[in-house]
Write a structure and sequence with these properties.
With 105 residues, the protein is an alpha/beta fold. Helices cover 31% and strands 19% of the residues. It is built from four helices and four strands. A four-stranded mixed beta sheet has the order 3-2-1-4. The radius of gyration is 13 Å and the shape is globular.
Length: 105
């Protein structure tokens, strides 16, 4: 089993299926963002419940039991796997140089 933490930027088809696959392999989804906001929980997020929340509310933002996180916060989060599953050109040189100890969320 893969025991890793991961974050997903973009929770459409690619992001949802990547999250589901990684979770089924034993990894823990700790953060996800979409175009309207994000959800973070170091204890883990359930991809199925996130999808249900998004379909009912239009976003993963305000998912119960989570803290809000933005895209820069997600990119600088301490995790094993990052899944960039949204629009291209989101990871800039500036974001790549950010120190994860800075508080962005």
């Amino acid at each position: 089993m893969l025991r890793a933490t991961f974050a997903v930027q973009g929770f459409g088809n690619v992001g949802y299926f990547a999250a589901t696959f990684l979770a089924e392999q034993g990894s823990k989804l700790i953060a996800v963002t979409d175009s309207s906001g994000g959800a973070y929980n170091p204890g883990g997020l359930n991809p199925e419940l996130l999808l249900k929340h998004k379909s009912e509310n239009g976003s993963v933002k305000n998912f119960p039991g989570s803290k809000e996180i933005n895209t820069v916060g997600l990119y600088t989060l301490d995790c094993d796997i990052l899944v960039p599953a949204a629009l291209e050109n989101q990871i800039t040189a500036e974001i790549a140089q950010k120190n994860q100890s800075q508080d962005y969320w």
